[in-house]
Amino acid sequence: MLLHLSTWPEVESYLTHRRAIILPIGSTEQHGPTGLIGTDIITAQAIAEEVGRRTDTLVGPGIPVGMAHHHMGFPGSMTLRPSTLIQVVRDYVVSLTAHGFRDVLFINGHGGNMSSLDAAFYEIYEQARLAHGEAAPPVRCEVCHWFLLPAVVALQRELYGDREGHHATPSEVAVTQHVYPKSIKIAHLDPNPGQADFFRDWRDFRDRFPDGRMGSDPSLATPKDGERFLHAAAAEIVARHGDFLNGV
Predict the structure, then answer these.
(1) What's CA 159's distance to the chain center, in Å?
(2) Residue 12 pLDDT more than 90?
(3) Considering the chain, what is the average pLDDT of its residues?
(4) What's the number of CA atoms in the CB half-sphere (13 Å) around residue 25?
(5) Do 208 and 194 form a contact (C-beta atoms < 8 A)?
(6) What pLDDT does residue 56 have?
(7) What is the mean pLDDT of residues 131-145?
(8) How far apart are CA 18 and CA 204, in angstroms?
């Protein structure tokens, strides 16, 4: 069940027996010469919808732009300031809790969002405490970074070894290929992508990683692999967060 394809009476009915909602969050940023700019939200949305199907949980609209300052040296990338992203997340959750939602699971597809999500949750909790004190509704937020799940990491190692890299990876590209098989991109890739594990700002990132990849070889990706990653991630999220989505 998708929020944007539902009517308000349907949501009202849903809230009579469920108080959970899943929100995908990603980024709109470069993913190397063959990775779609929407990779991080495409993957998060697809996995969120699969988790929603498996748990009968409503899935809300994804947050497509995240904190991606370090990718701004590449055309097409977009970014929110961390402070802006915190407020966007806060406003999403506050809007939903006004209608009675109480358990909000974010499925995140972008590493640059991690700190802002943690901060946003405490903004939400503190705002509720200051406004209502002990009478504040028991809102709970959790986040799952799908690309860090043990089952996903194990599959990355099995399929790609150290050619997985850290950005524009074959695992995330594979998921986009599974979701959008007509949008698979092919381009020449330098066999020696940037390998540094440190960068400062957008200029420094572009200097260290000229084509946008961080030690990855996305030419290894296939739609079949993407299907495996999607189902591996969904299964582990259900196992880890299923009780949370059921209000336990």
Answers:
(1) 22
(2) yes
(3) 97
(4) 30
(5) yes
(6) 98
(7) 93
(8) 47
- Residue 215 CA to residue 163 CA, distance in Å, equals 7
Residue located via tokens 């940037």: 194
117: Cβ contacts below 8 Å, ≥ 6 apart: 25, 89, 106, 108, 143
* CA 41 centroid distance within chain: 6
- For residues 23 and 107, the answer to whether their CB atoms sit within 8 Å is yes
Q: Is the pLDDT of residue 95 over 80?
A: yes
Measure the CA angle with vertex 180, ends 44 and 6; round to 5°: 55
Residue 196 above 80 pLDDT?
no
Cα 113 to chain centroid distance, Å, stands at 8
Alpha helix ranges (H) inside 98-195: 114-132, 150-160, 170-179
| Per-residue pLDDT reduced to its tens digit, 101-125 | 999 999 999 999 999 999 999 999 9
Q: Label residues 197-220 b or e (16+ Cβ within 10 Å = b).
A: eebeebeebbeebebbbbbbbbbb
pLDDT given for residue 137 in this prediction: 86
- CA–CA gap between residue 136 and residue 127 (Å, rounded): 9
Structure tokens at 193: 């992508």
Q: What is the CATH number of the domain that holds 11?
A: 3.40.50.10310
Q: In this predicted structure, what is the pLDDT of residue 73?
A: 98
What is the residue whose two structure tokens read 């961390």? 82
pLDDT band for position 198 (cuts 50, 70, 90): confident
3-state secondary structure (DSSP) of residue 75: coil
The total number of structural domains that make up the chain: 1
The first and second tokens of residue 131, run together, are 């406004």
Domain limits at 91?
A: 3-245
Q: How far apart are the first and last CA of the chain?
A: 21
**Do you know the residue count of the chain?**
248
